Amino acid sequence: MRLLRRSDTGEFSLTQFPDEAIPPYAILSHTWGADGEEVTFKDLTNGTGKDKLGYVKIRFCGEQAALDDLEYFWIDTCCINKANNAELSQAISFMFRWYRNAARCYVYLSDVSTTSFTSNRREKLAKPWESDFRKSRWFTRGWTLQELLAPSFVEFFSQEGKQLGDKRSLIQEIHEITVIPESALRGTPLSQFSVNERLSWIQHRQTKLEEDRAYSLLGIFGVYIAPIYGEGMTTAFRRLQEEIGKLEQCIKDLHLTNPQDDKKRVEDTKGGLLKDSYRWILGNADFQRWRDDQQSRLLWVKGDPGKGKTMLLCGVIEELKKSTPGLLSFFFCQATDSRINSATAVLRGLLYSLVTQQPSLVSHLRNKYDQAGPSVFKDANAWVALSDIFTNMIRDPDLKMACLVVDALDECVSDLPKLLDLVICTSTLSARMHIEQKLRGVDARARLSLELKENAEQVSRAVNVYIEDKLSSLDLLQDDGLRDQVKNILRRKANGMFLWVALVVQELKGPESWDPLQVVEEAPPGLHQLYDRIIEQIKQLKQRNSEICRLLLSTACVAYRPLYLAEIGSLCGLLGQISVLTRNVRMFATMCSSFLAVRDDQVYLIHQSAKDYLSDKTRDTIFPSQGRMHYNIFSRSLKLMSNALKHNMYDLNAPGFPIDKVEVPVDNPLATIRYLYVHWADHLYTQDKDVIKVFIQNKYLYWLEALSLCRSMSKGILAIVKLNALA
């Protein structure tokens, strides 16, 4: 990047900087004057151009930058050698990035004056320049659109060099002039706005060269096309939209889960985020040091199950959104969901979040994606490719700062050592080390450990706030004296454990809990003991209800992802139409609500500790063994698929019907077996080769059809590989 510098004598000189060594700089946004009025690169290198009208803008920018303690500044008229086509092409591709990375952007409005005047009533106007501001030519030019949106700090100046305000103080006026949403002006990632909406922002703007209307949008969409002047505006926009389509497809193929949606699901499942239950960490010395000290790059939050680590991180994420100057990316691991319990899934989630916030980073994805297609995210070498992409993205000089949050590392059941090595940026530790050993091996200057045991008093106070909030919503405890008694017992027994409180409150909400004092007095302290009591309560249900509840729990425990109500119902042998099946399973899930939660018709185990507890209990006579459960699911899967799979299940018009045009029938014949045709092979046992052979002989093509209809062919290929290894 070539930057201007103003000397003590008022002279200007140009300096070239490599990308990794660009100093802080100011940048000018303006409208060009007539040909011959602007100072060019050639003028500056030859020491000419001081008599041109455009020299006023150079002098203004240099003086204003000096007032803001910035030694360097950039102006498009003279910092680009437009006689060099290669340099001009590169500058067009970098323009958005240069404006985004500027410490300050000065908008020089040559048609707005701050000369005061009065209205007809002789009353002084608050903003005498506002009428001219709203009519300024700057708001009608194509290139100034990205110059408005890209920088975080934009200041507006009159022709006299007087400050009028900045993008935030003038946001209402700018919104009314441009019709650009205020959220976009405040810095919401532009990728959050639809393609058509972003295209509409250029609709009433003009450029000197017609192709520039398309080229000026490159940074706004995070894509690049080589400028071909003379191709015409129609062709330029066609190429732009083709590139946007490729970008959208790449991000769509990268998408595995939206961490924002996962965060909302976690918060909803746990009853919402309560600020008073996490704000203690904001005053914690270790947290503040990690947040403020650039040398403390890694913060490790450690605590026993049920201590509220996940909700604590949800709160930290909310606070970081307000204060982090760079990008914030996060991911929630969940051992019970095969989509989000692997190191590859973590990287895909983090990368997805990064590129949706800063689309220019997608170039690191496209380098590999354009060669290999979506398989680069899914095949056997996915970790190698993704870790390479991730490393390059983090090292990108345009990524000034990134804060990455990963919850529940211990629930990453696949390739955790690789993920840890990537996190700590070292390969010197044994891959067999435990999480704690690995993270303790990081340089103490870069790693901080925030252990909840060492902050027991703050956690206890946070739990007390949580108890107060939960009890306040119970109709059963409207009497202040009774509520205080219940509250005091919960505080005494909770031992700093949010999950324990949540489970007892869940019981208090039950129809049989007419005596809240008895409920809390009988509730045993300790999570494991409380789980024991809940199991005993399930055993006391009517025999058939108890059997189905235990079957639901054991099925949820071994499933590779959260099951839909109809799916888990069919696996448990419940009969009926989908609506009836869904209703019945929801009823049984309510009987197990201390272990199971239903959200968006999917059944989730409430916590990893619940899965761990139930997995241990399967060794007892209360539940079938895990081996038996896997066999039952495998056997039931083959039976259900054999009955459901057939030719042309969606009644498509002809072979080769485009998958993008397939509409799912209202009475979807695959609704109850979606999980089965993807995961049945994961539950298989080698002694069932004959049964597998019969199924493959009779239903193989129909199984492939089902996988194709539900866009799960890549997962089917993994199943085929597993079956082939068994043969």
How many helices does DSSP assign?
A: 33
Multimer state: single chain
| Sheet of most strands | 7 strands, mixed
Number of strands: 14
Strand content: 5-15%
Q: Would you identify the CATH architecture of the largest domain?
A: 3-Layer(aba) Sandwich
Q: Give the integer mean of the pLDDT values.
A: 87
Q: Which fold name is given in CATH as the topology of the largest domain? A: Rossmann fold
Q: What is the overall silhouette?
A: globular
Pfam families: HET, NPHP3_N
Organism: Amniculicola lignicola CBS 123094
Keywords: Repeat
Domain NACHT: 297-415
TL;DR of this structure?
This protein has 727 residues and is an alpha/beta fold.
Q: What report would you give on this structure?
A:
- With 727 residues, this protein is of the alpha/beta class.
- It has 5 domains: 2-188, no CATH class; 255-456, Rossmann fold (3-Layer(aba) Sandwich), CATH 3.40.50; 473-523, no CATH class; 526-624, Arc Repressor Mutant, subunit A (Orthogonal Bundle); 631-727, no CATH class.
- The protein has 33 helices and 14 strands.
- A 7-stranded mixed beta sheet has the order 2-1-4-3-5-6-7.
- Helix 21 (456-472) runs antiparallel to helix 22 (480-494).
Please give a handful of descriptors for the protein shown:
single chain, 727 residues, Rossmann fold, three-stranded antiparallel β-sheet, 33 helices, globular
Secondary structure elements and their pairing?
Elements: E1 2-6, E2 12-16, E3 25-29, H1 41-46, H2 55-67, E4 72-74, H3 76-79, H4 85-101, E5 104-108, H5 130-135, H6 144-149, E6 154-157, E7 163-166, H7 171-178, H8 182-185, H9 195-200, H10 212-215, H11 218-221, H12 233-254, H13 259-269, H14 285-292, E8 298-302, H15 309-323, E9 327-332, H16 343-357, H17 362-372, H18 382-394, E10 402-407, H19 416-424, H20 435-440, E11 447-451, H21 456-472, H22 480-494, H23 498-508, H24 516-522, H25 527-539, H26 543-558, E12 563-564, H27 565-571, H28 578-591, E13 596-599, E14 602-605, H29 608-617, H30 626-644, H31 674-679, H32 689-709, H33 713-726
Parallel strand pairs: 3-4, 3-5, 5-6, 8-11, 9-10
Antiparallel strand pairs: 1-2, 1-4, 6-7, 12-14, 13-14
Helix pairs in contact: 16-18, 17-18, 21-22, 21-23, 22-24, 27-28, 32-33
